[in-house]
Every structure is written in structure tokens, then in C-alpha cells.
Amino acid sequence: MSRQEAHVRIEASPHEVWRVLVDIDRYPRWNRYATSAVGDLRPGGEVKIVVPLWKEKRGPVNNRVTELVPNKRLCWRSLSWFKFLAYGVRCRHLEGQPDGSTVFREVETMHGAFAGVIHRLHGPHLLRGLQTECDSLKAEVERQKSADDRGRP
To answer: Exposed, middle or buried by CB within 10 Å (0-12, 13-18, 19+), for 35?
Structure first.
């Protein structure tokens, strides 16, 4: 098994972060990593995302939702054709902070006989993707929060 993690502090509550994270229909508007997401966001449901695969090429990755704990955690497992050799599990963790902010962590673990090979070949690319998604989420949540705050009397 190999593991990679990226994180970011978001100036918003876990509820505000969660609201953006699970609105998969809006991913194309803000998510610079997974530029499309469609599917059934519930435990056991399938979600198809479009992500960078190699160099500048993008392609679909099918996933099965394995865990969904509102305002806390969302995990899914890849369903690629080679899943018997290697598959990824991506979990997003929201950790509320005493100051009202949220630490958002995205963790990808690779499992299977070829997990080490995948990590060596694609590890830096995967880590950049994790951080890109974290940074994209931060920007969108804080943009929405700022807009909401300006709209209040």
C-alpha cells in the first residue's frame, strides 16, 4: 500500500465546506482537478469523474462511494479495469477547528500488487492532483462565503 496526502485550511465551517464538496453537479465550475462528476453520491453509489490521466490528457474514472459521513468524511474506491492489480481509495476529511475554520485533508491510498509501481510512476502527478483539488475547494468555499457575507445586512 502507498499513501499520499494533501491538505488546506479553509476559512469556513465544515458544513459550508461539505455543501460545496458534495454538490458534484457544480464540479466543472470550480474543481480544476476533477472537472466533471456525475453519479449517485451515497454509500454504494457510483460516481464517474473526469481527471488528468497522462500528460495533458483527461479521461473518466469510475468510483464506488464507500463512506459518506455528512460534514466529516467522503470516500470512494476506483473501479478501473485493472482493479485486481491496483486500485485507489480517496478519502476527504473535514476537521472543524476552534476558530471556526476547517482543515480539509484529501488522502489517496493505493492497494494491490502493483500499488508500489503506480506510486513510483504516478505519485507526483497524483499528489499535485490532490493539492489542486484542495486549493480549488478552498477558493470556491471562501468565494461563496464572502459572497454570502456581503449579502447580509
So the answer is: middle
- Residue range 69-86: average pLDDT? 86
Q: Which of 32, 38, 40, 60 is nearest to 128 (CA)?
A: 32
Domains of the chain: 2-23+63-151 (3.30.530.20)
Measured N-to-C along each axis, helices 14-21 and 115-151 cross at an angle, to the nearest 10 degrees, of 110
The helix/strand count (H/E) of the chain reads as 3, 7
What is the rounded distance in angstroms from the CA atom of residue 8 to the CA atom of residue 124?
18
- Tell me the C-alpha to C-alpha distance, in Å, between residue 80 and each of 9, 43, 113: 31, 18, 15
pLDDT exceeds cutoff 80 at 53: no
Label the pairing between strands 73-78 and 87-96: antiparallel
User: Cα 152 vs. chain centroid, distance in angstroms?
Assistant: 30
**CA dihedral (21, 40, 30, 62) positive or negative:** positive
Q: Model-level pTM?
A: 0.88
Contact present, 118 and 2 (Cβ < 8 Å): yes
- 86 or 43: which carries more pLDDT confidence? 43
* 53 vs 55: CA distance, rounded Å: 7
